[in-house]
Amino acid sequence: MKLESYQTIVNGQLQHDGLSYQYLAETYGTPLYIFDETTFVQRVKDYKEALSNPYFETEVLFASKALLTKAMGQLVAQLGIGQDVVSAGEIYTAVASGVNPSKLYFHGNNKLNDELLYAIEQGVGTIVLDNRSEASRLNKLLLDLGKKQRVLLRLNPGVEAHTHEYIKTAHNDSKFGESVFDPAIEDVIQTINNYPTLDLAGFHCHIGSQVFEEQSFLDSATEMIEFSKKMEDNLNLKVKEINFGGGFGVYYTAEDKPFDIKAFLPKFIQHVHETSQKLSLTLEKVTIEPGRALVNQSGSTLYRVGDLKTTTSGKNYLFVDGGMTDNIRPALYQAKYEALITNKADEVADTVYTIAGKACESGDKIINDYPLPEAETGDLLLVNGTGAYNYTMSSHYNRIPKPAMIHVLNGKSRLTVKRETFADMMRNEI
Ligand SMILES: Cc1ncc(COP(=O)(O)O)c(C=O)c1O
């Protein structure tokens, strides 16, 4: 397993910022989500710095679907960055944690009327409209309230990217946004712009997740800028902001070449500046909304090894005390991870194991065929790169309580999410 900067091996034991995983397991129990605050704060600073430029205002919006807890909201508030939220629940958590609601961007392809009303009532700064029907609903709600709302419209620029490949296409079947190739798109935008209650400040796009190809971001920027200019020329409209979404790829295994943000973002900003300048589009603000790239590296999950078994065909299973209930990604989309037995950190990895969870699903595996030192019941197994889309996608399948979460900062740990009890899971049942 590739070690993170906060991980060191001392006398064969892996440590997190000087804290042994043995100590963390004994203090907080397992499975345990562990989050390194220093790494997160540094990532945010790196993003902010890499975006700074003399041409337009920029803002980093943390896509909180990747990891949202009260402690994360408090960090977002302290760091003064914006936040991408996709439900009333995320708005509630952000605001309750101290995030300034004017810095929230509210996304989602089917925001309920109640959610829109809640967003308006809470003073959410920007609602990112998904489609024409939502715009009409929001206009009606605002008319009744006699209020005005800043909005962006989510567009599909015809660039779709996932991992190392991307395609350019005019055919778009995505459930998100309106296509720039839709013959009715100008009408849609004109209608939104004419609603007296909506202040259409610009456009948004998000081309995919875990993207490694720089060119896909550059191409989508070109498309968005050219389209924005066309709308300004054809409609009575001023595009002040473009939000280019998130999706910057991160390291899970050696197959992934993580995005070098410090090198790429200044290049991206220069490209946005030059392309918009060439077309005489004067942008006031450029935003991006990374989720995974801000938190994934900070997160790891500590498990206790349970039973071990070898099948008749020779496959070695290593069972852990969590699994798909705390990390659904391998079962959901064959996501890959690396792991280490923290109490055997300097031993030779000479046995191949499939690390499986305890849920009643054959697909409940965290890593297939992975080399580790010979394992024993009671060992501690750490999986790195679980900061994003693990806790937020966790479930109660099989009535397995959700793990606790701790944050580590300057060699000290603190509990940020309590381990669930059985009673917690029955709380709402009558
Ligand atoms: C609209 C939008 N913005 C940002 C993100 C964050 O993506 P990532 O975590 O890959 O950076 C997503 C992810 O699904 C998204 O849908």
Written account of the structure:
It is a single chain. The mean pLDDT is 96. This protein has helices at 21-28, 37-51, 70-79, 88-96, 113-122, 132-145, 185-194, 214-234, 261-278, 292-295, 329-333, 422-426; strands at residues 7-10, 13-16, 19-20, 32-36, 57-63, 82-85, 104-106, 126-129, 149-156, 159-162, 165-168, 178-179, 198-204, 241-243, 285-288, 299-310, 316-320, 339-341, 351-356, 365-372, 380-384, 404-409, 412-417. With 430 residues, it is an alpha/beta fold. The strands form four sheets. Strands 4, 16, 17, 18, 19, 20, 21, 22 and 23 form a nine-stranded mixed β-sheet that branches. An eight-stranded parallel beta barrel has the order 5-6-7-8-9-13-14-15, surrounded by five helices. The chain folds into two domains: 7-36 and 297-426, Beta Barrel (Lyase, Ornithine Decarboxylase, Chain A, domain 1), CATH 2.40.37; 37-295, Alpha-Beta Barrel (TIM Barrel), CATH 3.20.20.10. A hairpin with a 2-residue loop joins strand 1 (7-10) and strand 2 (13-16). Helices cover 30% and strands 27% of the residues. The longest helix is centred in the middle third of the chain and has 21 residues, at 214-234. Pyridoxal-5'-phosphate binds next to helix 10. Belongs to the Orn/Lys/Arg decarboxylase class-II family. LysA subfamily.
Q: Summary?
A:
Pyridoxal 5'-phosphate binds at residues 247, 289-292, 389. This protein has helices at residues 21-28, 37-51, 70-79, 88-96, 113-122, 132-145, 185-194, 214-234, 261-278, 292-295, 329-333, 422-426, and strands spanning 7-10, 13-16, 19-20, 32-36, 57-63, 82-85, 104-106, 126-129, 149-156, 159-162, 165-168, 178-179, 198-204, 241-243, 285-288, 299-310, 316-320, 339-341, 351-356, 365-372, 380-384, 404-409, 412-417.
